[in-house]
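Need residues for this backbone.
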């Protein structure tokens, strides 16, 4: 999958602010696009479940999402369906959205540190997710001046929170991708071959490493074993098919690279805390509300 640069327009404002819902949302093709941009992105999804693909991290979320994606960090969209109650708020801004002050004013040092950490991708949980989500939704009713003050307050509150998860153990922005050809090749190999039997020997040969060396290298870059990463990638693709098609679940499991249906069910439930059939029932029910 080619990584594309996404241009962001501010239209004479200091940052971009958009709300998406059932009536106003990006097409599915844009959600699936693997892209990056120099602007930092703060995204809030008020409910529901989905997948996160940020840098080398492939993971799922439940009960909504609050995520900060740093400059030039590749990612896909976070919301692949909407219903009457589901909304997504997206704020995009440059590091210097308030000029040089962010680097020169002592009181902004925590925000600057937050922005630096966001180059690895940060997910926020618990009460801070709800608090910031409400503030982000409330921005639509504020003047442009008030929005700047609120955004600074939001970033400061996030910088003080301890309820977060860093998604990548090392930076994986677009510059890192260009320099790190091995992990890029491994990542692309998975995308192109996940439906088939993937042998460690094959992918190790692809990046010109021995199997033991590749296994150590891959875990050092992703904090997951290659097998764990491959299974999560397959499950994430199964989630898309369960959500957007009426294909038989057993056929979906084989289409996503699982040779054993029982293994698929166990892996799916381990990652999503729900069986594939119950997940589909939940999605169908939410779309009827």
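Answer:
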């Amino acid at each position: 999958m080619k990584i594309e640069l996404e241009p962001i327009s501010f239209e004479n404002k200091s940052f971009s602010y958009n709300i998406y819902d059932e009536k106003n949302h990006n097409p599915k093709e844009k959600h699936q696009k693997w892209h990056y941009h120099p602007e930092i992105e703060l995204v809030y999804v008020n409910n529901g479940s989905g997948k996160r693909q940020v840098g080398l991290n492939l993971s799922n979320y439940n009960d909504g999402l609050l995520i900060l994606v740093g400059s030039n960090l590749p990612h896909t969209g976070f919301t692949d369906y909407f219903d009457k109650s589901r909304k997504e708020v997206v704020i995009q801004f440059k590091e210097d959205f308030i000029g040089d002050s962010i680097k020169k004013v002592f009181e902004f040092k925590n925000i600057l540190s937050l922005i630096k950490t966001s180059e690895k991708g940060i997910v926020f949980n618990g009460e801070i997710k709800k608090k910031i989500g409400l503030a982000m939704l409330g921005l639509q009713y504020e003047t442009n001046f008030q929005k700047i003050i609120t955004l600074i307050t939001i970033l400061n509150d996030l910088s003080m929170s301890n309820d977060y998860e860093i998604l990548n153990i090392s930076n994986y922005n677009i510059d890192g991708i260009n320099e790190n050809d091995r992990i890029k090749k491994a990542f692309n190999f998975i995308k192109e071959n996940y439906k088939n039997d993937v042998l460690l020997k094959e992918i190790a040969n692809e990046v010109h490493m021995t199997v033991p060396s590749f296994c150590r290298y891959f875990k050092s870059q992703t904090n997951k074993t290659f097998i764990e990463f491959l299974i999560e990638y397959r499950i994430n693709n199964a989630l898309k098919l369960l959500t957007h098609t009426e294909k038989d679940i057993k056929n979906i499991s084989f289409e996503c690279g699982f040779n054993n249906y029982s293994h698929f069910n166990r892996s799916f439930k381990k990652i999503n805390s729900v069986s594939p059939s119950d997940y589909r029932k939940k999605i169908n029910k939410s779309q009827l509300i």
